[in-house]
Amino acid sequence: MGSIQTPITMRSSAILESSCGYLLQELQMIWDEVGEDQYEREKVLLDLEQECLEVYRRKVDSANISRARLHQELAESEAEFTHLLLSLGERSLPGRPGKMAGTLKEQLDSITPVLREMQLRKEERMNQFRAVQGQIQKISAEIAGQSEYDDSSSTVIVNENDLSLKKLEEYQIELQRLHKEKSDRLQRVEKYISTVQNLSTTLGMDSSVIITKVHPSLNELCGISKNISDSILAKLNSTVESLEEEKKTRLEKLHHLGKALTNLWNLMDTPYEDRQLFSHVTKLLSVSSAEISNPGSLTLDTIKQAEAEVERLDHLKASKMKELFLKKQIELEEICNRSHMEIPSQSEMDNIMNLINSGEIDHADLLMSMDEQISRAREEASSRKTIMEKVEKWMLARDEERWLEEYMRVSFYPLIDMICWHQLLLHLLNFFY
User: Fold this and answer.
1) What percent of the chain lies above the pLDDT cut of 70?
2) Most buried of the four, 124, 171, 193, 209, by CB within 10 Å?
3) Measured between alpha carbons, how far is 343 from 61 in angstroms, rounded to an integer?
4) How far is it, in rounded angstroms, from Cα 157 to Cα 171?
5) What is residue 379's predicted lDDT score, i.e. its pLDDT?
C-alpha cells in the first residue's frame, strides 16, 4: 500500500506546487503592474509561508490526535479483552491472533469482533449468575421468613470481576444446599402440621384454627408459600408439645374417671349393659398416651360425660350401699347362726347404718370390712366344723367303747385277761379314730 501512497503524494505535491507557482506568478504580475516595492513583496511572501506552515501544523496535529485516539482505542480494547478473559476465567480465545500486525485501523478492526464475542459471552455468563444468585436470595429469604421478597433480577448484584465457571459452580452448589435445606424444612413443617392435625382430631379441636394461629401461611386456604423460618419451626414444635401435654392431661383425667367408674360399678354390681355405655372410657385404662390416635377419643365432651356419670353414680352409691350392707349383714348372721357363733350386736350395726346415712364413712372401706368379717366368719365356721366332726367321732367311739365293755363283761370277761382286754380296747379306739 505504501507503493501506491508515494505516487499519490508526489502527484498531490506537484499539483500543489504548480497551483501555487501559477498563483505566485500572477501575484508577481500584479505587483509589477502596481509597482509594489520589494519590502512589501517579501513581507507578503513571508506571511503566505507562515500561513501555509500553520495550515500544515493543524493538519499534522489533527493527524496526531487521530493516531493517539486509535492507539487509545486499541489499548482499551486490548485491556477490556484481557479483563474479560480474566473475569470469565479463560486463558485464551480460539481464533484470536497471538500477535496483531498492520496499521492501527487494521489492528482495531481485527480485535473488534473478538471483543464483541467476549462481551456477548460475558453478558450470557452474567445472566447465569443473576439467575443462580436470584434463586439463592429468594430461598434464603424464604428460610429467613421474609414474607415479601422482590425477586426481580435488578436486585441481584453480580461481581463482574469474577465470572468464572468455578465461581458459578460454587453458587450452584450453594443453591443445591439451600434447595435441600428448604425441602427439609418443608418436610418438618408438613410433619408438624400432620401431628397437629392428628392431635387435634384426637382432642376434638379445630386444627385449622391452631395452625393459622401459628402463622397464616401454614393454612392451605391462604394460597401463599409456607413460612419455614426458624421461629415458625419453634412455634410449631411448641404447639405440638402443648397439644401432647393436653393429651396427657386429658388421658390422666379419663384414667381417674375410668377407675372411679370401675370401682362404682363393682361396688354397686352395675349390669354389663350399663357399663358398656362408658366402655370407651374404661378401655383407656390400659392405654398410654402414645398409643391413642382414634378421632374424638379425648374430647372435652367425653370427659364431661364421664364426670357426670361418676357424679350420678356417687349420688346413687349411698342408697345402694344400704342395700349392699344389709345383704352382707344377713349373710354374716346366717354364717354365725349355722356355726353357733356370736352375732355382731344390733347397736353396732345401727351405728354403721347411721354413718352410711351421714356420709361419714368410706363405702369401699365399709364393704371391705364387711367382706373381711364374712371371710373370718367362714374360716371360723370351717374350723368349728372340723372340731365338731372330731367331737362327733369321739362321742361315737366312746359309745362303741361302752358297748364293748358291757358286751365283754357279760360274755368274755372270765376268759380274757385284763391286760389283753385293754390292748384290744386300744386297738379298737385306734381303728375308729
Assistant:
1) 76
2) 193
3) 148
4) 13
5) 77
- Dist CA 250 CA 298 (whole Å): 6
CB 298 within 8 A of CB 204: yes
Q: What pLDDT was estimated at residue 241?
A: 95
pLDDT exceeds 60 at position 10: no
| CA gap 95, 229 in Å, rounded | 51
**Number of residues written out for the chain:** 433
Amino acid at 151: D
Q: Which three cell numbers stand for residue 396?
A: 361315737
Contact 344, 332 (CB under 8 A): yes
Chain centroid to CA 295: how far?
22
How far is Cα 207 from Cα 199, in angstroms, rounded to an integer?
Answer: 8
Contact 254, 209 (CB under 8 A): no
Question: What cell numbers appear for 397 in the block?
Answer: 367311739
pTM over 0.90, yes/no: no
DSSP string, 23-62: HHHHHHHHHHHHT--HHHHHHHHHHHHHHHHHHHHHHHHH
Mean pLDDT value of segment 121-148: 88
Q: Report the pLDDT value the prediction gives residue 3, as an integer from 0 to 100.
A: 39
Position 425 scores a pLDDT of 56
Give yes or no for residue 341 having a pLDDT over 50. Answer: yes
- Residue 206 in grid coordinates: 379445630
- Residue 416 DSSP class: S
**One-letter amino acid for residue 417 of the chain:** D
Q: Nearest-CA neighbor of 228 among 299, 179, 294?
A: 179
Enter the C-alpha cell of residue 191: 410433619
**Dihedral sign from CA coordinates of 272, 276, 282, 283:** positive
3-state secondary structure 378-414: HHHHHHHHHHHHHHHHHHHHHHHHHHHHHHHHHHCCC
Closest CA relative to residue 233, chosen from 143, 138, 136 = 143
